[in-house]
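Case study B.
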Amino acid sequence: MISTPSDKILLSADGRPLKQSLSRSLRQQKIRALLLIAPLLIFIFVAFIMPIVSMLSRSVENDLVSQTLPQTVQALQSWDALSGELPSEPVYAAFALDIQNAAKAKVHTKVGLRLNYEKSGIASLFKKTARKAKKWDIQNDGPFKDKLIKVHKGWGEVEVWQTLKTHSPRYTSGYFLNAIDMRKTAEGADFQPEDKTILIKLFQRTLIMSLIITFSCILLGYPVAWLLANLPMRQANLLMILVLLPFWTSLLVRTSAWKVMLQQQGVINDILVQLSLVSDEARLIMINNEIGTIVAMTHILLPFMILPMYSVMQTIPPSYLRAAKSLGATNWTAFWRVYFPQSVPGIGAGSILVFILAIGYYITPEIVGGTKGVFISNRIAYHILKSLNWGLAAALGTILLVAVLVLYWTYDKIVGIDNVKLGG
Amino acid sequence: MAKDSNLEAFVSFNRVQKSYDGETLVVKDLNLEIPKGEFLTMLGPSGSGKTTCLMMLAGFETATHGDIMLNGISINNIPPHKRGIGMVFQNYALFPHMTVAENLSFPLEVRKLEKSLREEKVKRALDMVEMGEFKGRRPAQLSGGQQQRIALARALVFEPELVLMDEPLGALDKQLREKMQFEITALAHRLGITVVYVTHDQTEALTMSDRVAVFNDGRIQQLATPDQLYEEPENSFVAQFIGENNTLNGVVKELKSDVAVVKLDSGDIIECKPVNVSEVGERTQVSIRPERVELNKNKLPKKAHTLTAEVLEFIYMGDTFRTRLKVAGNEDFIVKTRNSSNQVRLKPGEKVDIGWSPECCRALDA
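Model:
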């Protein structure tokens, strides 16, 4: 049948609607393409997306308390935390039951540790109580209020119960408050005492030092990239190998090498002393502080700046500079007005790369940073590995991630992400 | 070759040599004088040294030996930006991050002209190339021909007396190229500027220039007006390079001031005009233009020689016929005839007597 012009829907030769046949014929191809990348997709999902999501969710998750002490949490609901009075007997009874169950299941230390982040001393309180509570007969041994207070006088403190109640909900903003040097109290969010504020300072330091490192990389990398793009092939290749050499050397080796170079009895200080530029007593302190971190990280991240700049500069024909000079521009004007604006996309790409890498750097500040030169990521590592406060670590990580995304967005608004070129 | 009056020369190359690697000379002993207002084209195959000469004149390459003078002053040690020479580049080299107006304004800004004066000059230059309404566009938004005009306007906007052009029309299609050829020459003559133009396209060179310098192997092979170059090539390279050319190889048998008798390798003996032969017994290449060969015996002058040729191919080209013949052993002998009503159309395999007047046939170096 030949379709008449009045037909609205176009039909293919076998009478099916054309759209349907088209999608049918394309489906096969799509499925094949999807199967081809399926291993990669699965790998990325399992090894990248899932761990990140699970880690990020830890920054708000808080079901340990409500799971381990369900009766207590229930009973505490009717207690006014701001009344200044201790909770009544049913709360103590519920707690005695909960702690006994927890002790039998051997999970009491976990919850003790969790609450210890919020108020130190609670961990030992839980340990001691659990030991005693194992032997109690919950049905007949009451009342438990005095009994618990006798076990540990901590149970007679309002603050302990306040902490317990404040951190009993399943989801908490406590970790995020901690991450910005605040804490969750019974009265609401409050600033940490002065001696405990460290994280905001660390965030600021991470940001400022990452910026300094990015700018140092631009300053050092630009001439190198220019040389790479403009030298004859043979020399450019040799230089390229020198640029890439750090890539092929272990990060640890390079960082340790800086330790050798920068320390007070190190190579640079020795040379300065021998040249009498610095007296032997006043050797420069260049390691275990900000200088060490900046120097070592600039060196390590330099290739990430040079390579995008180089690939952009390669696409700028030398005839532009010649044209500018033939039009009467001095070398400097020709460079600044003609060459430099065209190399900006390379600087942009390199800067984003270096800055984002720098802001999350861990190993180098750990080795050469001492206490003054460490980054926020070192704090995250500390909470993951040492204090085991994964919730706080996750909150810090989330803030770092969001900060990077915000900066990326700002860059896109100001410079435009289309202006970033990694080559071509 | 060169004009002898030194005072007249606006640009002059004085025994200029150039080597890049210290082993081979790219430009060998170049002498060239260009009077003011001339349109001179450097024509040659790639690698013949023509672009190098242009770059030395612009100041982007330094001469290994010799002097380049501009207006009587040696410019060897003057940096490019102080030479005040306008230049149009092969790929235009319009600054992609600037608009058309900013591109044109650039040479005026670096000369620290006032803003109002700059705008006036930019406008005048844009009007000159009929691109006035495009001043706010970026180069990427223009077609090849439009970019070409802007590049031209930019090279002229600061009113240089000398403008260099490095194969400026190479990237354009044929029709546009022909149009621009005409426009560039007209503009150059109207403004009275001196132009040094580099190309490898001989038609471009012949149609545009006052004089053409044919380059090969780092030397100027011939410097002459286009008609001289075509009709009186001085050596076999120029004869081959400019236009179509038939060659017959042979040995000089007799040599007089105005006639040379050449015995061709096939045994035929012909008379030629001696141009680049010096002694009897020397090998020579005889050059005849395809349109100077006559297929109709009756039209030939009495003195003319005739040779018997075999038709190999006949190509109908509309306004002309091209006939490929075998003449004295040469199977690529081309004859061009006009498509007139009484012109014979030959068939392959036919034998025909062809001939030419001796002055059209030039005995050149082998």
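Strands of chain A lie at 182-185, 188-191. The remaining cases will be described in the next quarterly update.
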